[in-house]
Amino acid sequence: MSAPATKLGFDGRIAIVTGAGGGLGRQHALLLASRGAKVVVNDLGGGMHGDGGGGHRAADVVVDEIRAAGGVAVANYDSVENGEAIVKTALDAFGTVDIVINNAGILRDVSFAKMNTADWDLVHKVHLSGAMRVTHAAWPVMREKGYGRIIMTSSAAGIYGNFGQTNYGAAKMGLVGFAACLAEEGKSKGIHVNTIAPIAASRMTETIMPPEVLARLKPEAVSPLVAWLCHESCTETKGVFEVGAGYISKIRWERALGARFGESSGFSPEAVASRWNEITDFSQGEYPSSMHESFNAILQGGK
Ligand code: NAI
Known about the structure:
Elements lengths: L13 E4 L5 H12 L3 E5 L14 H12 L3 E5 L6 H12 L4 E4 L14 H29 L2 E6 L2 H5 L5 H21 L4 E8 L12 H4 L8 H7 L10 E5 L2 E5 L17 H6 L1 H4 L11 H10 L3
Parallel strand pairs: 1-2, 1-4, 2-3, 4-5, 5-6, 6-7
Antiparallel strand pairs: 7-8
Helix pairs in contact: 1-8, 3-4, 4-6
The structure holds 1,4-dihydronicotinamide adenine dinucleotide.
The site of 1,4-dihydronicotinamide adenine dinucleotide has 32 residues, from helix 1 and helix 4.
């Protein structure tokens, strides 16, 4: 299919992009600004492992880039842990907020055996609490105006699991649950919440992937999906998308048809073991997309 004839514009829209001083966030900010959005470029300018911070340069450079191209942007240097201050920057500069792209992130990769509580807490503070804090501050504004577009940035590390990333994977999967619940709460208020699981060349991945692979993973190959999900004409909400290298695909939960045990037929550990093939058989899988669908099928359906 060819691209839609009408160019998708963001005139009059106010967007916050967290962690927009580099990598994926920078590309999201540049794309939205080039389409008319006024952008808050947030970045505390820290190291990849949550070290340092307090540098203004990362955000300033992107703001300069946007302005040089004729766009409108302001910088914010707060940590996402201080989400209210980031939203305040949008309100002070532009009077409202329509779009929040939760993108800021750090890594503290270490095997679980060697991980300490600080590694766990810091990753959760930035990814999960940070996204919550920024979103929580923007939420009343969006509810009041009956409009909002929110993006969470998850990761295949959480969805599929990855050695050395228990802290990161847990926080990233937490964002999937956060987004799913928030999407339900936003439905009646015109607020859509979607999640991306990107893969892209950035300082986060440059040491773990070979150059020829990185060359195919340009961060700008993720941003068109983000922009579409943030557009007023996009009705998608509660979606989770894998995206990278120009490939985009929606993912969803699948449940095996399963097995039903009655008291009369015996419900014992042995009975469970004897029907394990049925419990794990996806040949007739189904795809519940809400709590309601899930419960209904459990209470009424099944074998
Ligand atoms: P990056 O390291 O280039 O960008 C992250 C940005 O967030 C940095 O500019 C950093 O200064 C900023 N940041 C860190 N902590 C912050 C805080 N507390 N407050 C405000 N800003 C903060 O990394 P990249 O690859 O662009 O990552 C962007 C997002 O995408 C992250 O959430 C990451 O976990 C996620 N992601 C990236 C993947 C990839 O392949 N690059 C894979 C899966 C997920």
